[in-house]
Amino acid sequence: MIVAAVAIVAAGVFLWRRDFDTAFVIAALGMVAWFLNYRAQMKEITAAADLEEKNNGYEEEYEDPDDE
Questions:
Q1: Which member of 27, 35, 49, 53 lies 3.0 to 4.6 Å from 11 by CB, making a disulfide possible if both were Cys?
Q2: Which of 51, 32, 55, 33 is nearest to 43 (CA)?
Q3: pTM score above 0.85
Q4: What's the mean per-residue pLDDT of the chain?
């Protein structure tokens, strides 16, 4: 996330200096960094949810019928 923020600030500096091509490239790289960070966060969240779902399903599937 920090890389994305630094890239956007750098792109702003290049825009201010009227170097539009460089600003575009750096802003695009910043957006790629942001999307990759977002993707990594979503992978962690879904992996944790899948693990929790798997653990909950395991407990429910193998309940002892004599506990009633």
A1: 27
A2: 51
A3: no
A4: 83
Q: Taking Cα atoms as reference points, which of 51, 58, 2, 52 lies closest to residue 30?
A: 2
Tokens representing 39 are 């993707």
8 in Cβ contact with 30 (< 8 Å): yes
Backbone angles phi, psi at 19, to 5 degrees: -105, 80
Q: Residues 23, 27, 9, 6: is their CA dihedral positive or negative?
A: negative
Q: Grade residue 56 by pLDDT with cuts at 50, 70 and 90.
A: confident
The model's confidence at residue 27, banded by pLDDT at 50, 70 and 90, is very high
